[in-house]
Specification:
234 residues; homodimer; mainly alpha; 81% helix
Chain lengths: 234, 234
């Protein structure tokens, strides 16, 4: 293969990764901002975030398009192929994070007229934790660094524990005061959305490992190619 | 391209579609059965369904693997490319349906010890509706038939309306009797999961249209390639 062809391919791979990082930073910002609108009850910003989600959909479609085109034109193998496949799957995970953030912003609007909301401290802490995990795993991807990605993967249990706390706390409020039930029901979904964003950070961690080493995460119980499959929590 | 190569390619495409249909029927069966375990409070079957979800994960990974391999080896264009890309994306949607069904089965276990459950008639009706929509759209895919797929797409509002009813009904029970709160909270998530399975049926309808015509669904407000993107509800 002539030198210039290899370089053009490398340039395309770098462009793909750049778009993925741009998408990642937007997803982190949307998640943080969505939780913030819930905590500060900022309906105007929530509406803006809902509109901005279209940009994540566009980037996901763009990255998929480029990935498939790259595979068809270049027939990459081994690490190059893994890099393209991982980019496509990471983009899908980020697009889902965007959907979940958008849904949180919608619930800011749905609860705008409700009594003072409950359990917001827990929700805020959960939001900060998952946004920072998502940011950490994107940094790991950017640095091609498996160990920091695995650190995010190993710490997913902390997000799950916070979710279990939020679930119990919200039910306790509901039982103590029926006037909190409607808002607390929406907040149950907000907490669940944040837990799922944590799962997507974990999926991305697995994809970083897969991209770099071709291996699934030890103990994730999945064969090699299955590391590409999404985590199975709903 | 020699004749036998074209035939081999066609054979591969048919095999891909066959696996997709196999996966689709399994997904429909898992959704129906999961709702049934909730209604009949059948913990043993719920446990079996949770285990069986791994088969949907395996089929999704297998279909993605085959699709990417096909794109790299054959460089399909136009309708052939759309057929492969649609198969890969439909498999991801079915895998998500499986996750959501698995989550319903887990909630059958979580509520096994609870007081008599509430709103089960609504949940059962919703489950039957989304399972039949999912089945309809898979039949449409199998027949390469755009119109029946669009019929599923247009009727998604009925699923959404049932979800809104279920949400309100469950909140009413919670307010009337705090002892129902824990089980009703789980059932809120079951109803949401079913609504999202309805969204996946709608996504698949768009992918059938895309595969056959290369067009996005009229009025879905998306440019061509974006028809591949997932629906944006969380």
């Amino acid at each position: 293969m002539p030198e210039h062809t290899v370089s053009a391919f490398d340039t395309e791979l770098v462009k793909l990764d750049d778009e993925l990082m741009q998408m990642g930073h937007l997803a982190v910002a949307q998640v943080s901002a969505a939780v913030e609108t819930m905590v500060t009850r900022d309906a105007a910003t929530a509406e803006r975030l809902i509109e901005q989600d279209a940009e994540l959909d566009r980037l996901d479609a763009e990255i998929e398009h480029q990935s498939i085109s790259l595979i068809a034109r270049r027939q990459p193998i081994a690490q190059d192929l893994r890099r393209v496949v991982a980019a496509m799957r990471i983009a899908h995970n980020l697009e889902r994070c965007g959907d979940l953030a958008k849904n949180i912003a919608k619930r800011t609007l749905a609860t705008a007229e409700a009594e003072p909301l409950v359990a917001l401290t827990t929700i805020e802490r959960m939001g900060q934790l998952v946004a920072s995990r998502l940011n950490d795993v994107l940094e790991a991807h950017n640095a091609n660094a498996v160990e920091p990605a695995l650190a995010v993967w190993r710490r997913d249990k902390e997000v799950d524990a916070l979710y279990d706390n939020a679930f119990r706390e919200l039910l306790t409020y509901m039982m103590a005061d029926p006037r909190t039930i409607t808002a607390a029901a929406h907040l149950l979904f907000v907490a669940k959305n944040l837990e799922r964003i944590g799962d997507h950070a974990t999926n991305i961690a697995e994809l970083v490992q897969y991209r770099v080493t071709g291996e699934a995460v030890p103990g994730s119980g999945r064969p090699k190619w299955d590391a590409l499959a999404k985590r199975d929590e709903a």
